[in-house]
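Example with several molecule types.
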Amino acid sequence: MSIDLKTVKHISKLARISIDDEKANKLKGDLNNIFEFIEKLNELNTDNVQALTSIAETTLRFRKDEIKSENIREKILKNSPEENKDFFVVPKVVE
Amino acid sequence: MSDITSQSLFELTSNIKEKKLSSEEITKAFINRAEKSKKLNVYVTDNFEKAIDQSKKFDSNPNLDFKLPGIPIAVKDLFCTNGVRTTAGSKILNNFVPTYESTVTQNLWSQGAILLGKLNCDEFAMGSSNETSFFGNVQNPVGENLVPGGSSGGSSAAVAANLTPVTIGTDTGGSIRQPASFTGTVGLKPTYGSCSRYGIVAFASSLDQAGPMTKNVRDCSMLLEVISSFDQKDSTSIDYKRNYYSKELSKDIKGKKIGIPKEYRVDNMPDEIEQLWKNGISYAKDCGAEIIDISLPHTNYALPAYYIVAPAEASSNLARYDGVKYGFRSPGQNLIEMYEKTRSEGFGDEVKRRIMIGTYVLSSGYYDAYYLKAQKVRQLIKKDFDDAFSKVDAILTPSTPSSAFKIGEKTNDPVSMYLNDIFTVPINLAGLPGISIPAGKDKNNYPLGLQVIGKPFDEQNILNISYALEDKINFKNDISDWWLSE
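Resulting structure tokens for the full complex:
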């Protein structure tokens, strides 16, 4: 199996990373090398193997749904690239 | 008394407790050396001014019951530090100043430690040479133009160069143990769930663990004791009774069964590493341990499985960097264009590569063939270790298949870079504790490490075995300070 340029561009769209043709070609080569390496897994028959879903073998804990932090709006907005009082600002979405 | 910056954590702590040194003297000594060591490029952000203030404050009313009384410590720039810039080695977090503190670093400050600064690392901890950092590569103090390993490369270099007494790194596939091996230092990756992941910039959540990086095994036990804790803020943190690691540290490993896995004898492994391993085995025997040949049959599949699981988790974790709530933003005509430009300009090549791999293996139609397959292989790898640990108490292997390589040597070939982690990755996949200790040198006089792998939550046992081996190995780093400027 090999990954073609069209697939590379499709993945970059899914990953929301814009790439130009030169980068896409370079990535195509890298990804094919990496997947060639990964294909080694196909040597193994795993039909009767249960997939590992959690390494810790514990169930997730429940806790009470309580508010523990208050008035943290300022803290949350502190690192925003563009702020307007109490909101995050993004380019216009609704026409 | 030996030079302050060359002292171990144990010595510094004793000297503070016996009032032979003040926190201010120690802090200033490390800062003074850092000022002359810019060539190594270990710091992304320093906290020197505040550190001196804090050391004076400590000295004015010293609490000598603390485990790290007034000890200055620099940490990997992957731990969120309240009010101090945290970049994860990425342009996308270049201006990020957390408003909260990671649990692991909070544990340090709660025991009296003082933040010296934030140490360089591979971007989002993705790399084995510290060359993917937005802030440039780090020089290995062992020799000029050598990589310090990665991703905790700034951390390993800082410990080896006496720029911090100890540090903490993170290890997803070898990022503590491989750089420790490359710099002649000690690095321990604890059992998954031992140290809280809260406030650590996430890479692959089912693999990431924080751990100590130190000059010797005793310091390692002291630091693990401080950073390992149960934490409600991390849903995978495990509530179990932690040892008093430094107090229970012992060189008595008589009768311990140590397994030697034949699958770790890989093709093209240098003779020096084979010899290093043999020496380790013979030292373990000298200490009264019993050596048992074992098999971990799926070892060869660990790295390919890792390069599905880790990028898949990374692609999900890094979806948060969208230029909206924090971090770098590149303007766009509309929201989608802003996302795409922000991520294209904000991430480096290796991070993009891994996001692309992860996105692909999780995309519609490919999930079963890749991600599910890898999780099944991960189960087989875990079972290999479960079987082995029914016969042995610990496993001894080399830490890496080579010593430190030259800067730029492997940057154009991602797969050859990934092969660095061949001996460390299986341990993360199985969630086990592993430690690398310096064990010898190659023909170029570059350090080589041995890895001791333990059962889950059995850090005490691998620390004790390492402590006994360290004594027999008697490793000396002989670093010449070639980088110092006036």
